[in-house]
Inverse folding.
């Protein structure tokens, strides 16, 4: 029974790892992932292909895009949609 549950858990988690991004993928494509901020423990990248204009009414502008936070202390990459 334990082996069946572990197998089902593994099958459920496979799609989540298929959409993961790595630091080497971000750093190897600087035209797409633009570094916008960097600290001692974190770096923030913006996916330039995901940028959309939400409001274009000069002098007021609102844009949206995918932001990747790379945490070196936590050894993880977090994705969010920023406005």
């Amino acid at each position: 029974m334990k082996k069946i549950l572990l197998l089902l858990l593994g099958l459920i988690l496979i799609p989540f790892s298929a959409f993961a991004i790595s630091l080497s993928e971000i750093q190897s494509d600087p035209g797409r992932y633009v570094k916008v901020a960097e600290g001692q423990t974190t770096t923030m990248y913006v996916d330039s292909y995901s940028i959309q204009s939400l409001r274009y009414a000069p002098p007021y502008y609102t844009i949206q895009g995918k932001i990747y936070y790379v945490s070196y202390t936590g050894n993880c990459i977090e994705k969010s949609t920023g406005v």
